[in-house]
Backbone:
């Protein structure tokens, strides 16, 4: 007698990834969840634009 008779079967994932449009994502931005700019310091290497 097998301990796990269904072990050879594949597990089906019933959850699909939801896809959002840019309009849907931007529509969820509020003043409460909008963060300010972040200072990354001075540019170095090829980041420098002359």
Residues:
């Amino acid at each position: 007698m097998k301990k796990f008779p269904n072990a050879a079967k594949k597990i089906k994932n019933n959850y699909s990834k939801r896809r959002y449009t840019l309009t849907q994502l931007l529509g969820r931005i509020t003043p409460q969840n909008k963060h300010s700019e972040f200072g990354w310091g001075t540019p170095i290497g090829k980041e420098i634009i002359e």
Helices lie at 22-27. The chain has one helix and no strands.
